[in-house]
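[[Per-residue structure]]
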Amino acid sequence: MTIDELKKVPFRETCHMVMEGEYTTTYMSKDGRLGFCDHVPRDKYGMVKKGGRAVRHFMIDGKVYKSKKKFLEAIKDYNP
């Protein structure tokens, strides 16, 4: 799969979880094979932490890739 093909895949929010230290939101493709989740740090008042850096993890067929570089290498072999 190319980057242009990946950009055309529709994703929808499947889960949103609020924890003491972070917000986590998961998005999946319609077929459930591709996805990503965003982790956003929270401060002690429950707001998005000032200066906090969000982290995104990518998924292909249930396997998690913690770096965009590794995900982009793996997506080349993905066959929808």
User: Anything to note?
Assistant: The mean pLDDT is 93. Residues 13 and 27 are 4 Å apart (CA to CA). The helical segments are 3-7, 68-75. The two ends are 8 Å apart (CA to CA).
